[in-house]
Amino acid sequence: MSSHHRIHPTEVTGAYGALVKFAARKMTGRVPESLGVLWHNQAVMKDAMGIGRKVEGWRELDKELASYAAMASAATVGCSFCLDLNYFLAHNHGLDEAKVREVPRWRESSVFTDRERRVMEYAEAASQTPPAVTDELSDALLADLGPAALIELAARVAFMNMSARMNVALGIRSEQFADACGLPPLAARSAVSDAA
Q1: One pLDDT digit (tens) per residue for the chain, 196 residues
Q2: What is the pTM (predicted TM-score) of this model?
Q3: Residue 60 class from Cβ within 10 Å (0-12 exposed, 13-18 middle, 19+ buried)?
Q4: Which helix (H) or strand (E) holds 39?
Q5: I need a surface site. Which of 15, 97, 131, 159 has the fewest CB within 10 A?
């Protein structure tokens, strides 16, 4: 795989590096090249990964809705690494792969419920600059999910925005995690979605 990173990956070394590589292999089956990019600032990498682990421990929002929200946010920001990794993780967590692969084109797809669509609409709206979440959408989701899950949705989208924007800015792109487990390619996001 040719590197497109804006910062050349460095070797991940030492005892902490061995632990990080072990965790990466356990999660994805290999050590991502992007880990070497983030290794240049281990404090940022460690804290971002720590927040990510905490986010994955939240349980107020249904795990499928959480996955759809993260991927819709990543698609809005344009983070191919995040989309690929979350598609791979959805497969590993036993989520409906046919639905997950449709997230980038959720507006055109017929596989999602109204509630799932509202969650992805929220993720897209919150990922815009400036955020474009409306009172109507927030009220509908509050009725659908309850206050604790809506707060978690907002926080998950915010975390994905941090991760996705950092990856895009650093030139970190898809590392074909989904290909490794034989998943069909993600559905392509249409120009209409991008303009919405």
Answers
A1: 445 789 999 999 999 999 999 999 998 899 999 999 999 999 999 999 999 999 999 999 999 999 999 999 999 999 999 999 998 888 888 899 889 999 999 999 999 999 999 999 999 999 999 999 999 999 999 999 999 999 999 999 999 999 999 999 999 999 988 876 677 778 887 764 454 4
A2: 0.89
A3: middle
A4: none
A5: 15
